[in-house]
Amino acid sequence: MEKNSDLEKFKLAVENASDHIVITDENGICLYMNNAAEKITGFKKEEIIGKKVGTKDNWGGLMSKSDYEGLWKIIKKKKKPFVGDLKNRRKNGEEYEAKASISPIKDKDGNVVFFVGIERDVTKEKEVDKAKTEFVSLASHQLRTPLSTINWYTEILLDGDGGEINEVQEKYLKEIYHGNQRMVDLVDALLNVSRLELGTFAIDPKKVDISGLAKEIVKDVKVLSDKKKQTIKEKYQEKLPKINADPKLLRIVIENLLSNAVKYTPEKGDIKIDIYNAKKEEEIGGVKLGKDSIVVEVADNGYGIPRNQHDKIFKKLFRAENVTQRDTEGTGLGLYIVKSILDHSDGLIWFYSRENKGTTFYATIPLTGMKKRQGLKSLN
After folding, report:
1. 201-215 tens-digit pLDDT
2. Which of 159, 272, 300, 305 has the most CB atoms lying inside 10 A of its own CB?
3. Using CA of residue 77, residue 80, residue 85, residue 91, what is the dihedral sign?
4. What is the pTM of this model?
């Protein structure tokens, strides 16, 4: 089929689509833009066709030089699609956020002949999400004070400082304390989520002995695992280098993975934590690392994750169906927080799981460590 014929058919198909769609030649010169592109950017077709798109002369120019070069390397040299978030500028100067997909169209010989750029204006969606997150943050802050007060007075009563209590009263007070502590944990998790999403959390890297930190966490978690008569096996590579990392954030990552393993493994089950140094060319758990990293591997022989829910496991508030019936106390926020921390730290997380056979999580922190970040608050 002729090149021009293909182009004309595509134009007819997308002229009235709701997304901003442009077609360029192999050098980024605009050959076509649809009605939505005019409406979203404010530029008329005659102002854009024949010119290079996404530059400071039209709706682009807000990317750094390195990001711009990286985009072109992906779509022109590697001939692969680019998918990501972009900041654009309308003709009236107003900035907006867009989800973009730019795909190379190749001829039968594999040469790029067109680029198809599809963008969706997500400014309002982002504003709504931000407003929701700010509300959660505000509400959580307001809840912390009364919850702390309930904890404090309950502890006073349980210690007998408010007078002698009988067995029935003690039982009820312990239930109040336990329920209130669950609320405190939930509020802390919600605060962490809001700080991650708003970008207001601080990262304060220090030289950390990750094996030593893990050993401390194992001691804390063993209080729970001993009740279930579980075995936790520890393995730490000798002479692991210390890395620049925020110890609070590392603690959240390791503690979540270990406590989940304990929670979702039945009595007398086995749990293993293994921490080691891996080179960038190594393949760990089916994933090639891409950079020298410290790997934290946590494995169990517990309930596992149903295969049809593997793609949801890092989503906010998600809990697998096979564990919600066994444990009603989870928030569905732990793994979401862990992944967010690692995403902000240039790390990775993935897993292998079979239902009723167990799960292995892999988390990595690059040897280069975490970058310092100024923020209003650290994570809890």
Report:
1. 788 899 999 999 999
2. 300
3. positive
4. 0.66
